[in-house]
Give the backbone structure.
Amino acid sequence: MSSGLAELAQIPWTVVLSGSRTIAQIDYLKAENLLLREKLRTKRVILTDAERKRLAMLGKALGRKGLAAIATIASPETILR
């Protein structure tokens, strides 16, 4: 195999390994967010317009269903309005 083909053969493993790391990071952040939310108990988190806009920009890529699975400080409707 030439060196170019050998490099191409390594790409899927690199993607898989970085994908696994990303999934682990996301799982950790989800757990951390839930812990922080539990500490707040029933206290309402009030978002500024800038904070809501920031979440909306990131949340748009996930869509309502994706946000419903992970959003903890505001509902998908609040974030996406």
